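#structure-requests
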Amino acid sequence: MPLPPPQTQDSPYVLRYAPLWMDSVFRSKTTTEALLSSQRESGYLSPHDYEASITFLTNWHRQYPLLGALAGVGLVYCFRSPKWVTNTKRATLTFTLPFAGYSIGKISLLSAHFKYLNSIENPHGFQQAMEQIQAQAGAPKAGIIMERPYHMSPDDMTPDEISNKVHPPVPQIVLPNPSETQLSTPAKSPHTKWDEIRAANAVSVQNSTWDRLRQQHERKDLKVKTSPVAEEILWADSSEKVDVD
């Protein structure tokens, strides 16, 4: 179970705790001391957390469900003598009371684990110690998971964690790749002297064509305006020739 990172710089860490896994791994005092002593020597477990773990994990809290069921069976025998208890009621009590005792014992078991979890002084170190043990004994596969949020003190942090908290990483601006920018923009052809000459010739050709059209239009207009005068001159010339004859 890796330690989940905090969502923000000020939000708490979360200690994830599996009660069934704890009871299945730390079944005897010898096994518990062998597994936890190395974590205490590594500095993950404080002296208080080590002693609290030895005391709790080796006591008889895991027997609470069985004790509850036995207590329910004892109550069934108490109701066998009264005459008002019929066979139907006796059968119902025979099933109900042991089951109720087992359920109460299970709740008491989880409550004991919850109190033990809250008694841990260094939850961050405890989490790291459990990760080391899980690498040897295997991680929990199923069961109830308890969570305890906590804030890490500077004494519990590693040098890298302290550096990241005091000097958080500076956001960086990622610039686009120059090669991608060049590919996205169309390439411009080089501007040479020949390009200037071609542009000038194109302009001159356009101007000459426009002048030719304008001159033709003016000639047609002039011909239309001078046509009556030319007719009078031709008429006068023809009259003079007739008189001479």
